[in-house]
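Slack export, channel: ligand-projects

TW: morning all. Re-posting the request from yesterday since it got buried. We need the structure predicted with the small molecule present, not the apo form. The ligand is magnesium ion; the SMILES is in the block with the sequence. No rush, but it would help planning for next week.
GE: picking it up
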Amino acid sequence: MIKLQHIYKIYEDEHAKHDALNDINLEILEGECVLLRGHSGSGKSTLLSLIAGILKPTKGLLEVDGVSLSKVPDDAATLFRREHIGNIFQKYNLIEDLTVLDNIITPLIPTDLSYSDVLKLADEALEIANISHKKYNLAKKLSGGEQQRCAIARAIVNKPKIILADEPSANLDLNLTMEFIEEMKKLKSHNKTIIIASHDDLLFQSKIFTKIIVLDKGKISDIN
Ligand SMILES: Nc1ncnc2c1ncn2[C@@H]1O[C@H](COP(=O)(O)OP(=O)(O)OP(=O)(O)O)[C@@H](O)[C@H]1O
Ligand SMILES: [Mg+2]
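GE: finished. pasting the full C-alpha cell output, ligand included:
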C-alpha cells in the first residue's frame, strides 16, 4: 500500500521557494492502476519521485509497502527503490550499444544474484513484455515499439510490486500508445500497482485505471 498523509514538497534555493506539492493525502492499494493528470507544473513528476524514493517530502508521512520513505536515510531509499520500484521513463533511457538482454539486466547488477538467476529473471521479463525474439539485438536497432517493450522488461525484471511511468506516451504515435496500454493491462493482471503520470487523452480514455487523480498547483483537485 502507498500512503501519503499531509505531504508537502517545497523546492527551495537561495533565490526562491516553490510549493510543488501542498498537503497531499492519498492511499493507493496493491494492484491499483492510477492515472495522474494535471497541467504542466502541477506536481505529477514530483509526486512520482517521492513514491520512488528519489526525492524526500519536505513534510508529512509517506509510506510505501510498509517502508516509511519520509524517514529513512538516502541509502535505504535507494535500496528500497531497487527492490520495490520499476520505472518507465519517457525516453526509455536504453543503452544503445548494448543488447536488449544486457539492457534488461542492468537493474540486477548491484544485487548478489547468480548469473543463472539473473538470466532466468530476464527471460521472464522478456516474455511478459513480449520482446524475447529481440533478446540479442542491439537496442539501437530496435523499432520504437520494441524499445518501449525493452524498457518495460527492464522496469519489471526485479519483480517490483510498483511500476511508475512518467509521460510514457509523450513520444509515441497512436498505435504504440495502444500497445503500451495493452502492456499495462498485462502488468495489471500480474497484480502490479501501476501509477502513470500523463496528460494523454488516449490513456485517459483507456479504461484501465482504477483511480484518476487530478493535480492542480500541487493540490489534489479531483479524485475518482
Ligand atoms: N528541482 C526543482 N527545483 C525547483 N523547482 C522545481 C524543481 N522540480 C520541479 N520544480 C517545480 O515544481 C513544480 C512541479 O513540477 P513537476 O515537474 O512535478 O510538474 P509536472 O506536473 O510533472 O509537470 P509536466 O507536466 O510539465 O511534466 C513546477 O512548478 C516546477 O517548476
Ligand atoms: Mg512531469
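GE: first-pass observations. The pocket of magnesium ion (ligand 2) is lined by residues 44-45, 166, 197 (CB under 6 Å). Helices lie at 44-51, 74-84, 100-105, 115-128, 144-156, 174-189, 201-204.
TW: perfect, thank you
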